[in-house]
What does this fold into?
Amino acid sequence: MAVYYDVGMRSEPKGRTGFAHLFEHLMFQGSASLGKTEHFTYVQGSGGTLNGSTHVDYTNYYEVMPSNATELALFLEADRMRSVAVTQENLDNQIAVVQNEIRVNVLNRPYGGFPWLMVPPVLFGDFANSHNGYGDFVDLESSTVQDARGFFQRYYAPGNAVLTVVGDIDTAEVLGWVEQHFGDIPKRAVPKRSSFAEPVPTEERRATAYDPLAPAPAVAMAWRVPDPADLPSYLPYVVLAEVLTDGDASRLQERMLLEDRSATSIGGYLGLLGDPLDARDPTPFLLEVHHPLETSLDTVVATVDEELARLATDGVGAPELERTVARMTARYLREVDSVLGRATTMSVFEQQRGRAELVNELPDLLRQVTAEAVQAAAATLTPQTRTLLELRPGTAA
Amino acid sequence: MSADLARPLPSLGKPRSPRLPSVGERTLDNGLRVQAVRRPGVPLAELRLRIPFAGPSGRKRRSHTAQAQLLGDTLLSGTSRRSAAQLAADVQALGGQLSASTDADRLGVGGSVLVSGLPGLLEVLGEVLTGAVYPKREVVGERDRLVQELAIYRSEASVVAREALLARMYGEHPYGRELPTADEVGEVKASQLRALHAARLSPAGAVLTVVGDLTPARAIGLVEAALSAWSATGKASATPRVPVVEPGPALLVDRPGAVQTTMRLAGPAPSRTDDDSAAFALANLVFGGYFSSRWVANIREDKGYTYSPHAQVEHPPAGSRVTVAADVSTPTTAPALLETLYELGRIATVPVSQAELDQARRYAVGSLALGTSTQAGLASTLSQLAASGLGVQWLRDYPKQLAAVTVEDALAAGSRYLAPSALTTVLVGDVDQVRGPLSTIVELEQQ
It folds into this structure.
């Protein structure tokens, strides 16, 4: 079971960076019928697991339960949607927990926040897109109970959420329970979603970050891509990322890992958090290369440029495209084999595109991506439109 | 919680009894044991191969660890018929992926594939098992890359802590060091990998698990066709039992300027086949093994010292282990250790409540069902069970063992395995800041 609220890091105002994520934590701190930590104990004590996560465009909550606990899970989600209870004590506690989350994932970790927190301020100009979504400690510490109530009132309206239930269930029975537990949550205004659109960079942007914990350099290259709402224009970029970086037979891995030995690892993906189908416009195509100190940044960048230019000029062969899509399809099917993977995939499709059915249609849509479209996508990834973030080990001189 | 708006919680429905997967099994003439389960849902197949691969103890272990690691990294780097890139392209064309890795006990090959591509994937597997050539160029390239990756890996505080902990617990036993040094890696030659392959990659004692959208008979037939030519050339050996652990003083490792201390406490745990396995699992859950535990409630939800505390159990064949892990902010390091020792002492000396025990029990049963609810999860579980000498019936027997655990059993297991005096402690952090406060609680030794 998954509940997706249509609010994420992009909706945070100035002075409240990290608030969407902090608020996600507060949703586990109690509601009208549940004391602090009881949401966890009811789910886990029924044999289930649960979590939540905050993304650029949404915040989700989910439970995986034995099927005999389906109604209980619906009750728990409905109770906090109706009446989350935020106290000063719980807020203070979760600010400390979130700060420790940032320490373990960013501040005390080599390559922490690379590139997902480091690229946006270089790639984007608008605050909504460019700010640190994990949160500045000053902003987190100054957050108030009043902020939380306002955020909940504005963004956690029932009409701003999508609920998905997948499993060994009787759908009519489940819909009855949904009506019973969610039906009387008062309707309130759904916030109009802001446009976060901003111009595409027209010249190269570069920045350097220093990481005292990192033993070796790395570089992230980012380009803006078409609005993901337009799948036929967007999917060729998703396929292109795999043509470039999925496995030893991909363009950049074969060239840089097997032939030149100029890189240690290479990743390529759409979206800051690595899921191509969960972000709205504006969103980047990202390449991430870790390389030894002996390889210069210029060599890495020149090689990537050369391979992109080769794709743009010569295109991708039919067998290469076919094998790339074959593995993408298998990986996608593997993900939706789990009830949770299926529920989260359906949720984001429904929320952002109004079509949960895409869960079954995606393999066909991938097959329809043509070699010409992939070639055209590669041609847009030019040095002139690139944002380049260099990570150097050590501290700034 | 506001009492006036509170609503009554719905009760749980009648639990479904899970069906035990029907496992087809056959041991091929070459000694390879195959187990297969049909699990429809998505048109894929998962495979997991485990080959016993225990290394020597003592000094020889060092070169073995480096060679074993590189053997896993280059098993798929070419055969007499196909180059590394060709193998990769062919696997990809099947909608498949295949990867190999080694640890102190086994060489593992894991894969998944569109079910239509399973014959092709098994053919690739057979080809590398019988004819991997370890081309010099690929071995040298992977060797250099491994040195880079090890440096990156060892820059993580959690890895520093794990290496210090395992060395302290197991000394010269193979479990004492999982990773080679850069120097050891640099000395490995392609010819050594070929020799190691010939001596150790034997089907005798190996287990291949296949789970997917095809019948066990069909899966086993495909395996037989593809892997019958794999012949037993060397012999398998098992890792010797782990030594008795002497916890000693808490080990402090300096990470100057660290904003958190990486805290680990670990000790022996019962294996899946020990009588007190279920009782220990429940005691550990109540202590800190899941979110709804005492320790998480204390140091996270009450005090905010940490983000993700967890007490985790691992089952390597030569001796299971429990690790109590939390990354705590530097100024709260000593208070966090104090609360951890308190909760450990409590689970070791004071009976848990019946409600705590029942809640943990339901969670343990539910997790088992969830972990085997996908093709990938079922394949991994069956493969791990086989390594412990257990079959699919364990999935039915273990919930019964959990059901039988009493409060007294949980206390006995908590007392035996989770007592602070039984655990080895490692703390990786900014020594200048944490040494003083920590020394008021525990005896310290600095690495």
